[in-house]
Amino acid sequence: MVLGIRKYGDAVLETPCEKVANFGSKELKTLVFDMFETMYANKGVGLAAPQVGVLQQVTVIDTSAGEVEEERLVLINPEIVHLDGQQLGEEGCLSIPGFREDVRRAMTAKVRAFDVDGNAFEVTGEELLARAMQHEIDHLHGILFLKHLSPLKRDLIRRKISKLVKAGEW
Ligand code: NI
User: Fold this and answer.
1) Catalytic: 90?
2) Rounded to the nearest 5°, which phi and psi values hold at 53?
3) Rounded to the nearest whole angstrom, what is the distance from the C-alpha of residue 144 to the centroid of ligand 1?
4) Domain 11-166 = CATH 3.30.1300.10
5) What is the pLDDT of residues 51-65, one digit of tens each?
6) Which helix (H) or strand (E) segment is 81 a member of?
7) CA nearest neighbour of 6 among 59, 52, 37
């Protein structure tokens, strides 16, 4: 089922998530399934549970945007264990539609996480995958990519969004 995506301004997006405890449950599997459907329906490469209103540490990523089955990645209770290098590139967020900005991220990210059945694993990503993992793990801690922008750019975007909200277009 395609779920509704919460937009910037919704407090759920800036609230830290709880760790998942119900590994293997139908609820967790359904959430992950629905998150993939929602992400693909919106042409995203990553989605975090708070974006669909669920305050649990669950994120789905597919840097191939549905083209390559093996690229599907589910990170539950993820922790970044190592970051290396730097990259500067354009980033967007399904919760902040219409706004894309350059964000500085680590070039390589090593993450430890669990799958839906509670099996621990590690994944190392570079470039877009590293960026997506850092962006989505930020979401689980209530952090949006706007936090990584200069105060000037951040305020400009906030003002534009306020105008859209007032116009009933957000
Ligand atoms: Ni996002």
Assistant:
1) no
2) 85, 15
3) 7
4) no
5) 999 999 999 999 998
6) strand 73-84
7) 52
d(CA 101, ligand 1 centre) in Å:
12
pLDDT for residue 76 is more than 90: yes
Q: What is the chain's Cα-based Rg?
A: 16
Q: Give the distance (Å) from ligand 1 centre to CA of residue 24.
A: 26
Q: Which of 18, 37, 69, 136 is catalytic?
A: 136
| Inter-residue contact 58 to 21 (CB < 8 Å) | no
Rounded to 10 degrees, what is the CA torsion of 65, 35, 30, 142? 140
| d(CA 113, ligand 1 centre) in Å | 19
| Tally of residues, the chain | 170
Q: Measuring CA to CA, which residue among 162, 149, 168 is closest to residue 9? A: 162
Average pLDDT over the chain, rounded to an integer: 97
Please count the other Cβ atoms lying within 10 Å of the Cβ belonging to residue 35. 23
Q: Does the predicted TM-score (pTM) go above 0.70?
A: yes
Burial of 24 (0-12, 13-18, 19+ CB in 10 A): exposed
Residue 33's DSSP bridge partners are: none
